Amino acid sequence: MAYPFQLGLQDATSPVMEELLQFHDHALMIVFLISSLVLYIITLMLTTKLTHTNTMDAQEVETIWTILPAIILITIALPSLRILYMMDEINNPSLTVKTMGHQWYWSYEYTDYEDLNFDSYMIPTSDLKPGELRLLEVDNRMVLPMQMTIRMLVSSEDVLHSWAVPSLGLKTDAIPGRLNQTTLMSTRPGLFYGQCSEICGSNHSFMPIVLELVPLENFEKWSASML
């Protein structure tokens, strides 16, 4: 999760988020190089009294500054499209979980099990135990197996919500009457926090998401205890 005064993105937990972090650094480096070049040229024009007329009117320069931006845009667009298709691809999910947004809590249903569903409410500040995080802890965490492909079906029963977990690279809109789907896979165990990322009413800030990723053996024990 994020920490105070953090400047970058959260540590990646899924292969998709690792690709997103790499693309972020790739695009940021291109922006940095362009900004440095433009700043250098502006500084040169303001501090140099001499003007090279051939440079100002040359066809070669106009050709370069037309073709070069097109090449830069292609170097940004190609990896972006690759990641976009990776995020939409679903390969034989091992588990399906349906998430429903409500005002103002989440409900989860494990569709591969006969009767495994529960609601997840935020724990009020007055009920928090030492070490728990304000506005982020819930009474029922969603437990999932790690290193397995999981399909999330996301919808809503009232207004627009958005189910988002930054460290997994997930953000899927919960729309009433529509079922959106996304895929998640964690490469390591742990607790991962998220929040509703769509303005959904007065208590929009009070519907956190907590994912507990555990080994498959622990998940089977948890699911057996919940049935």
Automatic annotation (TrEMBL):
GO cellular component: mitochondrial inner membrane
Compartment annotation: Mitochondrion inner membrane
Name of the gene encoding the protein in the UniProt record: COX2
Primary subcellular site in the record, as a coarse category: mitochondrion
The keyword Metal-binding is assigned to this record: yes
Domain Cytochrome oxidase subunit II copper A binding: 92-225
Sequence intervals crossing the membrane: 27-46, 66-85
GO MF annotations, alphabetized: copper ion binding; cytochrome-c oxidase activity; oxidoreductase activity
Record membrane topology: Multi-pass membrane protein
GO terms, biological process: ATP synthesis coupled electron transport
Organism: Neophocaena sunameri
Role, per record: Component of the cytochrome c oxidase, the last enzyme in the mitochondrial electron transport chain which drives oxidative phosphorylation. The respiratory chain contains 3 multisubunit complexes succinate dehydrogenase (complex II, CII), ubiquinol-cytochrome c oxidoreductase (cytochrome b-c1 complex, complex III, CIII) and cytochrome c oxidase (complex IV, CIV), that cooperate to transfer electrons derived from NADH and succinate to molecular oxygen, creating an electrochemical gradient over the inner membrane that drives transmembrane transport and the ATP synthase.
Pfam families in alphabetical order: COX2, COX2_TM
Family classification: Belongs to the cytochrome c oxidase subunit 2 family.
Keyword Lipoprotein recorded: no
Note accompanying the cofactor annotation: Binds a copper A center.
Reaction catalysis annotation: 4 Fe(II)-[cytochrome c] + O2 + 8 H(+)(in) = 4 Fe(III)-[cytochrome c] + 2 H2O + 4 H(+)(out)
Protein name: Cytochrome c oxidase subunit 2
Cytochrome oxidase subunit II transmembrane region profile domain: residues covered: 1-91
Cofactor(s) needed for function: Cu cation
InterPro entries (UniProt xref): CcO_II, CcO_II-like_C, CcO_II_C, Copper_CuA, Cupredoxin, Cyt_c_oxidase_su2, Cyt_c_oxidase_su2_TM_dom, Cyt_c_oxidase_su2_TM_sf
Superkingdom of origin organism: Eukaryota
